[in-house]
Amino acid sequence: MDQPLPLDDLRVVELGQLLAGPFCGQLLGDFGAEVIKVEDPGKGDPMRQWGREKPYGTSLWWPVVARNKLSVTADLRTEAGQDLVRRIIAEADVLIENFRPGTLERWGMAPETLWETNPGLVITRVTGFGQTGPYASRAGYGSIGEAMGGIRYVTGDPDRAPARAGISLGDSLAAVFACLGTLVALHQRGRTGRGQVVDSAIYEAVLAMMESLVPEWQVAGYQRERTGTTLPNVSPSNVYPTSDGEMVLIAANQDTVFKRLVAAMEQPELAEDERYATHSARGQWMEQLDGVIAQWSSTIAADDLLERLHAQGVPAGRIFRAKDMFEDAHFAAREAIVRLAHPDLGEFAMHNVAPKLSESPGRVRHVGPELGEHNDHIYRGLLGLDDDMLSSLRSAGVI
Asked: Which end of the chain has less Cβ packing within 10 Å, N or C?
């Protein structure tokens, strides 16, 4: 626990709220960056109230996305609040924000202005559509980015409207790319001494995950459609029933792996059947092959089925729910879930840091902080404000 963290020499100021910007801050904080989250002194980040389940009126999302961060308050609608934040930014390596383009500029925090006092500052800006272009000024929620980036159209069953993943996928992808861009910009700063703007757009982050969708249309005039639980011409790779009501995903579309699957099924002749002998043939006869596998899998309990498949080297696994993750030996062995102390809820479990580094791993040090918990630490320790100044700022509602 005393091992130095790889980014513990970085100071990050996070001005964003909700998810895309703050998730980028979380990722940097996981590896040791000092992340100073600036919140409105009245209510703070709306994420403090968000989440499907709120036992005792407490958000279960906030402790995760704000983990490892320091919370300070400043009213950015006031000149005094803007001045305080500019002074903090002057001592930072990275600024993260996810407001509409132009907001920082209205607050007197245009990149050119900030670089006058801090030329090495990396300014990471996460928005729906980016800082330029005809859509830049539009409100850009993650769901809109998912729609325009292409992933919504290809998600779901073909006879129904496009579906969505049960998580905030677009926001999270934009945050991951923002974090990547931030680290690249910091690396470049090591060469030049200069910061730059990292422009992460939600729709572009989604588009970046769309494989060969663009050239498929441009070269072949082929439009991917919704295909439910399968990918076209990739078979077998589907979810199959078991005798005890579980669902197991089996992925055996490669020729060599398919031979292992039919060996586990004790039906080796299927690998010689012209309908299933090659990857292309199995893709054409996908529906029939899925029926054969489902008929077999439905006669075996999930544990026994997985044991047979794994013994043959066939990739397979249950469809996990949260409770399954807590009970799984592999999750436990790799400490995929970490437990911390929460001031209201006691022991609090969340996903651990990813990826794992062999020499300089990240660490979850604490859950998301109380609103303004670190005001004195930052305003006294970093900016050197005295008691009278702090009292005046509090009385005016600035912090």
From this structure: N
